Amino acid sequence: MREDVRRGAAAVALAAVVGLGVVGCTDEDGVSPSDLASRVASAASDAASSADRKLDELTDGVNVKDAARLGSTTTDDDGRATVPVTVENTEGSEKSFAVRVNFRDEGGNLLDVVVVTVSDVPAGQSGEGTARSSRSLSGEVQAEVGRVVRY
């Protein structure tokens, strides 16, 4: 994996964790449930923007959203949502993929965003990775492909 992509993915995860950690305050700090929900949504939106900026920085990247598909979303032992990611390389040479995965609640609200890199997929073959939310998510969580960049 290219170092700038690895750092970008780490920055997105860190921004989501720090942003959501800040809003982890409850009623004892005078934060109402609606304010808390608003802050969580804002942090998730900020993480999504950060992810898109990092994807934009990939040199010679091509947007290929249809190249990725997701499996079923599950929850691991730490309460984090996980989903298998499969990318298909239809090009004539080896390529890598950066996949933005959005985690949403049953109402469609954005909960978290992560970027998964699937590196060095041979020409005409598929590669796999796993997207894991940056924090514990509760309730029914659904994953969707937000954006895919082939480079």
Structure description:
With 151 residues, the protein is an alpha+beta fold. The protein has one domain. Helices cover 29% and strands 38% of the residues. It is built from 2 helices and 8 strands; from the N terminus they run ααββββββββ. The strands form 2 sheets. Strands 1-8-5-6 form a 4-stranded antiparallel beta sheet. Strands 2, 3, 4 and 7 form a 4-stranded antiparallel beta sheet that branches. The longest helix is centred in the N-terminal third of the chain and has 24 residues, at 33-56. It is globular, with a radius of gyration of 16 Å. 36% of the residues are buried.
**What is the chains' assembly state?**
single chain
* Number of E-type strands: 8
What is the mean predicted local confidence, pLDDT?
Answer: 81
Question: Please, how many domains?
Answer: 1
Please report the distance between the alpha carbons of the first and last residues. Answer: 11 Å
- Strand percentage, roughly? 35-45%
Q: Order of strands across the widest beta sheet?
A: 1-8-5-6
Shape: globular
